[in-house]
Design goal:
By secondary structure, the chain is mainly alpha-helical. The protein contains nine helices and no strands. The longest helix has 26 residues.
Length: about 230
């Protein structure tokens, strides 16, 4: 399918925000800065805004790829690729952080949502109303679903449950129907840069965490050694 700059640029913008947030998170972890991730409105909202952008782009991409019929070869390759990395993240975090490993993070959610979302790619109105219902029901009623982490006795460092986050994938499917992805944008150096980041978002996502964490850890050890 044709590559559109808008979803790539939005995904690239989310990548920049993600790097900024994780960098701040690591600096907080090693006590270089003090931020309140749960009570400060900015730091509480930022990661949730980032995830919503990513999942919205998942919905747009699903609709673009499958708008003329379900391409099962693409479904299989995408599921294996993203799902495989999700498993790798679970295994690695379990080994390194057994009390806070990631059992269902953003890649896990994207994998499942990419499969379930196929059933909605040609139903934009249903997607809009169902997606809105999922998002608003969580914001208004705050349903208390028993988290799996309670039974696992862990505090996962990244947790993106299917509900309500699948709602943003459905909103992305609707945005495709109103041609959001075809918005006329004047190509600039900044926009091209965001598009580049968006086209390589999975690679950047996989690499940026160990690079950021390793850099801050090295800085911490240098500081304590001095």
């Amino acid at each position: 399918p044709q590559r559109y700059i808008m979803p790539d640029a939005v995904r690239g913008f989310a990548i920049l925000l993600m790097i900024f947030f994780h960098g701040a998170y690591d600096l907080k972890l090693f006590r270089f800065i003090r931020i309140d991730l749960f009570n400060d409105p900015f730091w509480f909202t930022l990661p949730r805004f980032i995830v919503s952008l990513f999942l919205m782009c998942v919905g747009i991409s699903l609709a673009i790829v499958h708008q003329d019929g379900i391409r099962w070869d693409k479904v299989g390759k995408r599921t294996i690729k993203i799902g495989g990395w999700a498993v790798v993240i679970t295994v690695v975090t379990y080994i390194l952080f057994p009390k806070s490993y990631v059992y269902f993070g953003v890649l896990h959610c994207i994998t499942v949502a990419s499969v379930v979302g196929i059933g909605f790619v040609n139903r934009p109105r249903v997607s809009f109303f169902l997606g809105t219902a999922l998002i608003l029901s969580d914001l208004i009623f705050h349903p208390t679903l028993p988290p799996l982490s309670r039974w696992l006795e862990i505090h996962p460092m990244d947790h993106v449950p299917f509900y309500p986050w699948f709602g943003w994938v459905l909103i992305g499917i609707y945005l495709h129907a109103i041609r959001f992805h075809q918005a006329p944008l004047k190509k600039t150096a900044s926009l091209n840069f965001l598009g580049f980041l968006g086209r390589h978002s999975l690679t950047i996502y996989i690499l940026h965490r160990p690079m950021l964490y390793g850099s801050v850890l090295a800085l911490y050890r240098f500081k304590t050694a001095g």
